[in-house]
Specification:
Elements (H helix, E strand, L loop, with lengths): L11 H16 L5 H13 L3 H4 L42 E5 L2 E4 L4 E2 L2 E7 L2 E5 L4 E2 L3 E9 L2 E6 L4 E4 L2 E3 L2 E2 L14 E9 L2 E6 L3 H73 L1
Parallel strand pairs: 1-4, 2-5, 3-6, 4-7, 5-8, 7-12, 8-13, 9-12, 10-12, 11-13
Helix pairs in contact: 1-2
């Protein structure tokens, strides 16, 4: 498929499929550690299907890593409920290794009933925020030797931490938070020596963007309401000024009329006196 469209952009899931093939090849002895690290670096830096294709071309399972045919039809969105995310079956990835390097499991993938990870002088991330789950209870076995593994869970998931740390430790901060009804239970276990295993709870990027947009919309609505109230208050002032202006004008005209009326009467009185004298 990559030969058909080598210029198409590769996704995180595509890169992860290639990385899984490399891990299997390392476990089977088809690649030594230096070759594995070199190809793994090339995998996570690949941008297109064409970049991914040569990485597994000489491996007997290379066809597994071929980029999937791109569907031009939009797939239906999953309902977002926990029932739809506990799928059963097998996980899409069952283990991860970082030796003086790093690994990531993130995006849309299926977490198996037990996932094993090992970090030696390196680090790894296991992100469950957009993942499906093979069962209602999963175990993440994390071994960190002079390295670290970080587990990211979405809100609503119950977390239980049972790991052992020697000159290292396991993060218990998210333990004890009640899970949503029907949500999976994540058990974090393993061993940390001069290293650590962290657990943090985060919303997905899409959810974070949605919340950010909601806050922006609320601020905009409050600003519009304040502007509307200001305009309403301002619209009453010209009427008040006009009424005052009209009142001043009417009083001024009345006074002017009185002034003209008194002058006329005095003129008539002087005219009558002048006639009497004559």
């Amino acid at each position: 498929m990559t030969d058909d469209a080598p210029e198409l952009r590769a996704s995180d899931a595509d890169r992860e499929r290639v990385a899984e093939v490399l891990r299997d090849a390392l476990a089977e002895g088809r690649l030594d550690m230096a070759e594995f690290e070199e190809r793994l670096d090339a995998t996570y830096s690949a941008r297109t299907y064409g970049d991914l294709a040569p990485i597994t071309r000489d491996l007997p399972v290379g066809e597994v890593a071929a980029a999937p045919r791109v569907s031009m039809t939009k797939e239906p969105e999953r309902d977002g409920g926990w029932a739809g995310r506990i799928t059963g079956g097998e996980g899409s990835s069952t283990w991860a290794v970082a030796v003086m390097s790093g690994f990531q499991r993130k995006g849309r993938w299926t977490v198996p009933r037990r996932f094993n990870s090992f970090a030696f002088w390196g680090g790894g991330e296991i992100d469950l925020r957009e993942a499906d789950f093979a069962a209602g209870e999963i175990v993440l076995n994390c071994v960190a030797i002079m390295g670290g593994v970080n587990v990211v869970v979405p809100p609503g998931v119950e977390v239980v931490v049972r790991g052992i740390g020697i000159m290292g430790g396991f993060d218990h901060s998210e333990e004890g938070v009640p899970g949503d009804r029907g949500a999976p239970r994540v058990i974090v276990t393993g061993f940390a020596f001069w290293g650590g295993v962290g657990v943090e709870r985060k919303v997905t990027r899409a959810e974070r963007q949605r919340l950010k947009e909601e806050r922006r919309q609320e601020k905009l609505e409050r600003r519009q309401e304040k502007e509307r109230q200001r305009l309403e208050r301002g619209s009453g002032r010209p009427e008040l000024d006009a009424s005052r202006h009209d009142g001043h004008d009417s009083h001024g005209l009345d006074g002017l009329h009185d002034l003209h009326g008194g002058s006329r009467e005095r003129e008539l009185e002087r005219e009558r006196e002048r006639r009497r004298d004559t």
